[in-house]
Specification:
4 helices; kinase activity; about 100 residues; TOR kinase binding; kinase; mainly alpha; transferase
């Protein structure tokens, strides 16, 4: 038996084991009774097939504009005003930032 034939035989045996182990269900805490929740299962199916439900429309574009534009802008303005308030209370000159009053 040549080295190549031996390697092929080992590969065949390993492939057979991997295929048989692939479909075994393993549980970490024993054989617990599982009761499927219909709503969780439906949500999981919808999540797996989200590309079939997604639509570009005015509602989607509005959500994208709010979460990608207005929310970061509001956070930035809040941070700048907090820095300016602290600087004013400490009697320091306000720092120059994008969106400062200067």
């Amino acid at each position: 038996m040549s080295l190549r034939q031996a390697a092929q035989a080992v590969c065949r045996q390993l492939k057979g084991r991997a295929a048989s182990l692939q479909h075994q269900q393993q549980r970490a805490a024993g054989n617990l009774p599982v009761k499927p929740n219909k709503y969780v299962e439906d949500w999981g199916v919808r999540r797996e097939h989200i590309e079939n439900e997604f639509r570009w429309d005015a509602s989607t574009l509005t959500r994208i504009a709010i979460w990608a534009g207005l929310v970061p802008y509001a956070i930035y303005v809040g941070c700048v005003s907090e820095f300016n308030t602290v600087d004013t209370q400490a009697k320091r000159p306000e720092r120059e930032m994008w969106g400062s009053s200067d």
